[in-house]
Amino acid sequence: MFYEIGLALYTAFTEKRPEANVPSEYKQIAGHVAAKCGWGTRFNAVEMRGTVKRLPENRKVMIALSGGLDSVYLMYKLQEQGYDVTAVHVAGLNKSSSSFEERYARDAARKAGAKYIPAKFKAPRQVFPDNPFKNQLILSIMLDIGIARGIYRYAIGSDWTTPLSEAVVGFTITDSAEVYLAFWNGVRKRFEQAELVFIPDNEKKYERLQYLFDKGALECVSSCISPLRFRESLHVKNEQKYHIKLMPGRCGSCYKCAMEYILLVEAGKIAKNPAFYAHCWDTLATSKTAHRPDLFAKSLPLEKRLRNLRNYGS
């Protein structure tokens, strides 16, 4: 039932089309997203029926496990809080999706002691690296799987705080507050009992990194964003150039790998390699893959850059 709804939203944004069918309760948000993307798409409202009866009370929760930092962290936290966790990894949603990501998700779930369910999706041709309704499709898939298992709590590694006006077209619209709220309000009309579980908002990314490092789980995290075909060669190149041992799955050249290394060094979790440390700051500020040079520019004092990095993505 929910898969049909999520798929309608997802496919409406797989390519720029003059018309598309979306569930009636999502026509307004689809229009806002289309406007954000600069599209003149017209949406036809389609009625989709079906409701879910109340499920028995329990401590079950289902989490969308990408294998990235936030979802692995949340999985461990839910386990600590006494939930019966089932992790679902949906493969095939992005252009870069691969069995590599699924292996990390599976290993992370096994290490945490959570149940693991792989789900496959064959994505149609995309115009976005991240479809604006990607996470909503993931939640839709999870809902159909979870309801059959008596699960009414759901979690995904996102804090949902970014306004749609500040979201980046092609990447972070699916994480925006308005899109999530509109989608979940629609879910609750059909499944009143459905609950969402969030990442604690008082624990920042550097604290999540340290937590998973101490758990011995960071090697099961795959946050690197370099294309898979280049990842291993960059990994080897940087290890040889800087005489350093990188954790598996790290390219050592993308901004996420750079952030992770600097934060772990500053936390005293790993030894500092001065040359690679400088390389990581260059990656954030001046390289071809520079990320937020306004926060990490070399002209800023090191303490200011570190403060910005610790607060980044909180």
Describe this structure in words.
With 314 residues, the protein is of the alpha/beta class. It has three domains: 2-46, no CATH class; 60-197, Rossmann fold (3-Layer(aba) Sandwich); 224-311, no CATH class. Helix content is 44%, strand content 11%. The chain is built from twelve helices and seven strands. Strands 5-4-3-6-7 form a five-stranded parallel sheet, with helices on both faces. Helix 2 links the parallel strand 1 (19-23) and strand 2 (42-46). It starts with a helix and ends with a helix.
Which CATH class of the largest domain is shown?
Alpha Beta
CATH fold category name of the largest domain: Rossmann fold
Rg computed from alpha carbons, rounded to a whole number of angstroms: 20 Å
Instruction: Compute the number of structural domains.
Output: 3
Query: Helical element count?
Result: 12
CATH superfamily of the largest domain: HUPs
Helix content: 40-55%
Structural class: alpha/beta
Distance between the termini: 34 Å
Reported for the largest beta sheet, the result is:
5 strands, parallel
| H and E order | HEHEEHEHEHEHEHHHHHH
Q: Do you know the CATH architecture of the largest domain?
A: 3-Layer(aba) Sandwich
Strand adjacency order, main sheet: 5-4-3-6-7
What oligomerization state is this entry in? single chain
pLDDT < 50 runs, ≥5 residues: none
* General shape: globular
Strand content: 5-15%
- Per DSSP E runs of 2 or more residues, the count of β-strands stands at 7
Mean pLDDT: 91
